[in-house]
Amino acid sequence: MSLLAAAALVLPAGGFAAQDFSAAEQAIFMDDHLGNVRPPSTLRYTYRQAGSLEAGFDDSVAVSLNKRADGSCCASTGAFLSGARQVSLPEIDNARANPVILYFLEHDIREMHRLTKGSQNYFRKRIRMAIYQGATVTPVSLRYKGQTVAGQEISFKPYVDDPNRHRYEKLAGKEYRFWLSSAVPGRVLGISTRIAAATADAPPLLTDDMMIEGADPVARAP
User: Contacts by 86-91 with C-beta closer than 8 Å and gap 24+?
Assistant: First the structure.
């Protein structure tokens, strides 16, 4: 899946005014995340996968931002994970929203396909619908470089009410959380997904956490 296809997560065909998008769509995909970054600059993130479903790992993500030919921000390239896990990513010539969001979702959709053999287009559609219709946006306090900063938590569960969830029932409760703050370069403090176990006292089946370097992990409610 190309990044242009990934962008179709939220951008419907045809012309739409800003009021046609939900608050979550605006915050995740349409805000000028890179307005607080001065190129050339590199945004670095840690990535950790854990859980009982399969072996976990620790890795890293980097987004390099450079001036465009006209001097404006930003042309971007990404390095998402490494070795056999690395996701190949094309350059984005005119990035405004932080490309790390599309990179994370690109990887996430591929992983859902790997684990379930389900259609990548189908998972893309469910995520898009959940962000538009079912996401909650909550003000939160976050920790970055030892300081408390104001931010937003955006959460949603794309598959919990999916009529086709019987095809991948074990993963149907998957929850996505985005943490955004204007105090953080590129505004994305972190993105996390979590698939809970069937019983509350068991460890999660799978968690994926990507956090910008310098951020403290965000505590989750039980």
Answer: 89/3, 90/2, 90/3
User: Could you tell me the CA-to-CA distances from 84 to 50, 81, 87 in Å, in that order?
Assistant: 17, 9, 9
Q: Report CA 152 to chain centroid distance, whole Å.
A: 14
Entry pTM: 0.90
Residue indicated by tokens 């379930």: 116
User: Closest Cα partner for 156 from 49, 15, 23?
Assistant: 23
The answer to whether the CB of 46 falls within 8 A of the CB of 60 is yes
Digit-coded pLDDT (tens) for 2-48: 444 445 444 443 444 455 789 999 999 999 999 999 999 999 999 99
The Cα-based distances of 57 to 47, 51, 84, 85, 208 in angstroms read: 8, 10, 12, 10, 10
What is the distance between the alpha carbons of residues 51 and 57, in angstroms, rounded to a whole number?
Answer: 10
- Name the amino acid, one letter, at 192: S
